[in-house]
Amino acid sequence: MSTTTPDPFAKEFGERLRTARLRQQLSQTALAHQLSIGRSTLVEYESGATLPSLTVAMRLAATLEVSLDWLCGLAPDR
Q1: CA distance 62 to 55
Q2: What is the pLDDT of residues 41-73, one digit of tens each?
Q3: Which residues form a coiled coil (predicted)?
Q4: What is the pTM of this model?
């Protein structure tokens, strides 16, 4: 049985994504609908299981009114 170490970058991205979504008072379903992605895909992003493409990450940042650098964990401020 193989185990994988969670990607700390993906975990940070997911935590910040969830924080930004909740600050905008959006449900996962509502945000996924706005971005035309599946709710299950958004759940994977928020859990750190996978990372979005650059295009989707940019759309997430714009929709949630945060910088892409902040969303990616590269800047302390939104």
Answers
A1: 11
A2: 999 999 999 999 999 999 999 999 999 999 999
A3: none
A4: 0.89
